[in-house]
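Q: Could you fold this chain for me?
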Amino acid sequence: MLPELLEIVGPIVGLTTVGIMVLIGMKLRYSHLRDTRSGSIASQEVEHLAETVGDLRDEVRLLRQEYAGLNERVEFTERLLERPRGGSA
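A: Sure. Below is the predicted structure, expressed as structure tokens.
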């Protein structure tokens, strides 16, 4: 009796499990498509990219200022080294 019951119930449980998994996958896929088409994810990504670009511009501005300061120091040092020494020769 038990093996006969398992022969009937086993495939039903297996097919039901597979069907539930397919339905869950479809729901996840369609919710992702809906979010993508509505633009909620895209607008968040664009905002994040805008913030990142702003941060990068600020960092480049700081690097340019530091480079200009270093360039001035190098020029000053070169002028000091080019001057003749005022000591005894």
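A (continued): The first helix runs from residue 2 to 38.
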